[in-house]
Design a protein that fits this description.
The protein has 10 helices and 19 strands. The chain has 429 residues and is of the alpha+beta class. Helix 3 crosses helix 4 and helix 6 packs across helix 7. The radius of gyration is 25 Å and the shape is globular.
Length: 429
């Protein structure tokens, strides 16, 4: 689980400060406030780790087939008006299961621009509770390698340049001797944490009438959810001890949302094609023929049950196209699945219904403020500012930003005033 994130000079974030994350973290705020950048910073590292070029320092994207996000050039990422030196940084800490060789780790990296325009690491720090390793850029692309608080570097040279932001090359590991093994374990733990990030964006693909299934289970549902149905087909059709479990779980939540009683899979002819059927109010219909809300929430529910335990799921606007009750039930999905399956959710949302239900779950002790954090992002001038919401054990918010969800009491007062005025006009009073 990623338990802390810190951005500096990255897009709208001059300095986010240490952002504490929980098993479920909800990001709220107005449009273009900077919420998405918090998620995108993790995707930036994930797509860097996945790059086929191990010598790359930071993959800003551009490959539509493989990258999650295209960040543009260095200047598009650097915060406007950033003072010299022109650098931005990303730091995070993570906590792995007890079975891992490295349970706790921290990553911090600052990036600058070379004279050729390329992004280059200026300083990389990888640490655990016991050890600390640093790679610091010197002149002409050389890097000095430091261990713990040693005043002198273990070595220096261009051959020691970091790889994919999270690791040092074989030459550096050999230079470090027995310490190199510890560093290698740390880099591997960080790599697994980043590879375990699953992203579902706000724009989900419309469903097809039927699907060709190649008898395999997809690794991810895709950032637009286009492989969600493949995942459901695989769970329904592949023989295993968990066969049908995901389909049943998704059906359960659709029933709670009042959108369907059951999902089922049916073969279409003998061509290896299948359709997903939605059972609701005694009617069985193809997914394509039901309301768009069902197809839009399916990837959200599928990723909740298909993401491997230990994953971090990034969700943007999971409530899109859902009616109020369904939006509220999403809070129950995140709270329950995060505890049962040990999956972390970072959720960017504008839904008052989702937020209010999470407050209710805290009041009912179905989750807690330790398990769920509410973060509000606002703009102050050109800068994004993070305001952690102070939620008590009864779900009440002590420092709620004024009028973010509108002024419900004010609307009620205005309706009463208008009603009284109209009654006076009718009665002539």
């Amino acid at each position: 689980m990623i338990d802390q994130l810190h951005l500096q000079n990255l897009k709208a974030w001059r300095d986010s400060g240490p952002v504490q994350l929980a098993r479920v973290t909800m990001l709220l705020g107005s449009n273009s406030s900077g919420k998405s950048t918090l998620l995108q910073s993790l995707l930036l590292l994930k797509q860097t780790v996945a790059s086929p070029d191990r010598t790359i320092h930071l993959n800003l994207g551009g490959d539509e087939a493989n990258d999650y996000f295209h960040f543009g050039g260095f200047d598009a990422v650097l915060a406007r008006g950033a003072a010299a030196p022109r650098q931005f940084s990303i730091a995070l800490s993570f906590d792995r299961p007890e079975s891992e060789r490295v349970r706790h780790g921290r990553f911090a990296c600052s990036y600058g621009q070379t004279t050729s325009g390329a992004v280059a690491i200026q300083a990389l720090e990888l640490s655990t509770v016991a050890r600390r390793f640093r790679a610091v850029r010197r002149e002409r692309g050389a890097y000095a390698i430091y261990v713990d608080d040693e005043p002198r570097p273990r070595g220096k040279g261009p051959q020691l340049a970091p790889e994919r932001s999270i690791a040092l090359p074989a030459e550096a590991l050999a230079l470090l001797g027995s310490d190199g093994t510890h560093l290698q374990d740390l880099s591997l733990a960080l790599r697994r944490e980043l590879e375990g990030i699953v992203y579902l964006g706000p724009l989900r693909r419309r469903p097809e009438r039927d699907y060709v299934w190649n008898k395999t289970a997809p690794g991810e549902v895709g950032s637009d959810g286009h492989k969600a149905i493949d995942a459901l087909l695989a769970n329904a059709l592949l023989p295993s001890e968990h066969q049908g479990s995901v389909l049943r779980s998704v059906s359960h939540w659709l029933q709670r949302m009042g959108m369907a009683e059951q999902l089922s899979v049916r073969a279409v002819g003998r061509s290896g094609r299948y359709e997903l059927l939605v059972h609701h109010d005694g009617v069985v219909a193809n997914l394509r023929d039901v309301g768009v809300g069902v197809s839009q929430v399916l990837p959200v529910l599928a990723v909740a049950y298909c993401a491997p335990p230990g994953s971090t799921v990034l969700l943007e606007e999971p409530e899109i196209h859902l009616h109020p009750l369904a939006q509220a039930v999403l809070a129950e999905v995140f709270a329950e699945v995060s505890q049962q399956r040990q999956v972390q959710f970072l959720v960017e949302t504008h839904s008052e219904h989702l937020f209010r239900r999470m407050q209710t779950l805290i009041a009912r002790r179905q989750t807690s403020t330790a398990q769920c954090r509410m973060l509000f992002v606002e703009r102050r001038g050109a800068d994004a500012v993070l305001v952690p919401l102070d939620v008590d054990e009864f779900g009440a918010v002590r420092n709620w930003p004024q009028h973010f969800f509108g002024d419900a009491m004010g609307e009620a007062r205005e309706q009463a005033r208008a009603r009284a005025q109209r009654l006076r006009e009718v009665t002539g009073g």
